[in-house]
Amino acid sequence: MNKRIATVAVLIATALFTSTTSVNAAEDSTFKASVDAWKASNKAAKDAYKVASDSYKAGKRSYSEAKKAINDKFKADNSALKASIKSAADAATTAEDKKAIKASGKAQLDASIAARNAAIAALTKPVKPSKPAKTSKPEKSTGN
Questions:
Q1: What's the predicted TM-score (pTM) here?
Q2: In-domain check, residue 59
């Protein structure tokens, strides 16, 4: 009879341990799958941020170069404009002629400034990407 009780106890213990182990194994594989999905999601977000950041840097560089080109052209044009106004004013014989030439030059300079400002405003300024949101790691369920 003791052998029978011992055998039944071993069978019951084996059954309990086996069923608990299989449930724990299922929970572990579910947890592992959720952690793997979390890691993949974070990696994809980081990769997308890196691509957006690289694009932003290239756009910023392009914007800066275009703005510099506009300003360099403005400086060259205005330098030539000022030289022509000065030579025309020096060649003028009356004070009224000099005043009219300088007023005309000022109007041309104002138009040049407005054109430069419009060209700069037409440029598209790049938008800095936002960092990916941090997500919390999945928690292992404690079960029962």
A1: 0.63
A2: yes
